[in-house]
What does this fold into?
Amino acid sequence: MKNINIAHERLLKIILAPYVSEKATFVGEKNNQTIFRVTTDATKKEIKAAIELLWKEQKIEVTNVRTINIKGKQKRFGRFLGRRSNWKKAIVSIKKGQELNFTNFATAEVK
It folds into this structure.
């Protein structure tokens, strides 16, 4: 893959949070994948670069990134209708034998 020149500030803002659910845990254990909530304008190349930057101390190699745009649900608040915001989900495949360690993630320094 070509070297991508993306600002580090942009890469640090792309990944919002890991997405934890029963299905996400099952997929993660079975296929060595992790699911993240990302910004709606993020591209697959930016997501890959952001994951590799955030976990560069562990030398994580991303093999594949798939993205899904999730529509916000319509909810009722009494007699009023409201709508949750749309968001984007990224399914990140990691090289076999590697694992993302979230315990050091909060204290990691990116230089």
